[in-house]
């Protein structure tokens, strides 16, 4: 998630109670990758969500796969670093970001 989050940073997050907001930082319980922190790129009508890190070297959205909205457990609100505390604000996700492919294999979550 660099440059938004750096090694040694902590994230203060709240339990997600509403529909995910595009551009926000989410703490996700991924079925294969475990707990991950990613930015929400898109959400479709049935709750499938596409996420990505902020760094070009981050795991690609097609590798992470479409995730179910229910796997988003928390929403990051604050970054705590050795340099201080800063608010994590939703980023404006432009049209250059990939769109959600809802055609994926439910048992293995692989894109079709």
Notes on the structure:
The chain has 112 residues and is mainly beta. It is built from 1 helix and 7 strands; from the N terminus they run E-E-E-E-H-E-E-E. It has one helix spanning 61-64; strands spanning 10-15, 25-30, 34-43, 48-52, 67-68, 72-81, 84-87. Strands 1, 2, 3, 4, 5, 6 and 7 form a 7-stranded antiparallel sheet that branches. The longest helix is centred in the middle third of the chain and has 4 residues, at 61-64. Mean pLDDT is 86; it is low at 96-100.
Instruction: Detail the poorly predicted runs.
Output: 96-100
Number of helices: 1
Measure the end-to-end span.
Answer: 27 Å
Structural class: mainly beta
Query: What characteristic shape results from the CA principal axes?
Result: globular
Order of helices and strands: EEEEHEEE
- How many DSSP E strands? 7
What's the mean pLDDT score?
A: 86
- For the report, how would you describe the main beta sheet? 7 strands, antiparallel
What is the alpha-carbon Rg in Å?
14 Å
Helix content class: under 10%
Proportion of beta-strand residues:
35-45%
